[in-house]
């Protein structure tokens, strides 16, 4: 049987595109090299808890159209992301707000916090920041930088802040209110029943084949579809012929613990360099779980090499220039649409990936 579309990747981009196409009567075959659908938003149930296998995912958007769209596929709870930072034996609220500052300096008013930050910045006399350390110091002052930014950023990038470019931090989201809500978006929550169920609903009406790698599959079935939607890595599609784009990867160590509450919060960042992981996620707190056990994931940031799971694109000048060259090749590829975080080599939040997939579908269908 010949399909209208072969959709490579059952992640959010592929699933939204497929949903739009099926609705309009197109026949779609969706393949994924993993043994499951949903891509990086995949959640699996362990001990009655929805575990986010590829990292914590909180849905947030200010776009009412996207919010209404995603709510067709799941009901969302009222989870608000309010991470905690642990530095040595000190505990702070994130994002940087009056709760953080009052704990750090034993103060109460916004003016006191602003004065301390301003005086710490002035003491440093940094006028032209040459690296990330100088940039962060010139924006945050010494205390916030040393306790909450330095170690975490160095673990994330695997390099000292003095060797990282200043553009990584353009501004710091300081809030001079007692507001621990990490996101400024109007809508936020976690889907009740997990993200995998959302992808499954979106993919209804398509044929799905997991454990199926595009490159082998297309060799054996070159005429399977009229058009292809490719959401894998753009450089891999072209056999890395111009070189490999760089990523950062993340390693997760997931454990079931025989306690009902390990850390009292879904997301705890470890900002001290001596603690090797960057965060511990306690999944049940995303859904206000009351199970007798708990599941935690320690996240370790790591260097990426071809063959590993790519997580974060390293969008420096060199990689962006290389991506643009691949993009030129992609534009010449007939009947192939490149989409999603890997096909477009950019970090996309879920709401943005949905918008991009809808736009691609509007243009193609
Ligand atoms: P993916 O989900 O990666 O889907 C691509 C699929 O293509 C994969 O399943 C892959 O196996 C498959 N594939 C690739 N190559 C091939 C091939 N050759 N053959 C067959 N299949 C192939 N967004 C938010 O809005 N909120 C958050 O809190 C949030 N947290 C995040 C945390 C982390 C650690 C990361 C990395 C991202 C986070 N995101 C978050 C972003 C979110 O994960 C993405 O927006 C979304 O997953 C992108 O979907 P996608 O379909 O583009 O990619």
TrEMBL record:
Keywords: FAD, Flavoprotein, Isomerase. One of its GO terms (molecular function) is UDP-galactopyranose mutase activity. One of its GO terms (cellular component) is cytosol. Its EC number is 5.4.99.9. Residues 147-347 form the UDP-galactopyranose mutase C-terminal domain. Pfam families: GLF (PF03275), NAD_binding_8 (PF13450). The keyword Zinc does not apply. The keyword Chloroplast does not apply. Its cofactor is FAD. Belongs to the UDP-galactopyranose/dTDP-fucopyranose mutase family. This is UDP-galactopyranose mutase. It comes from Bilifractor porci.
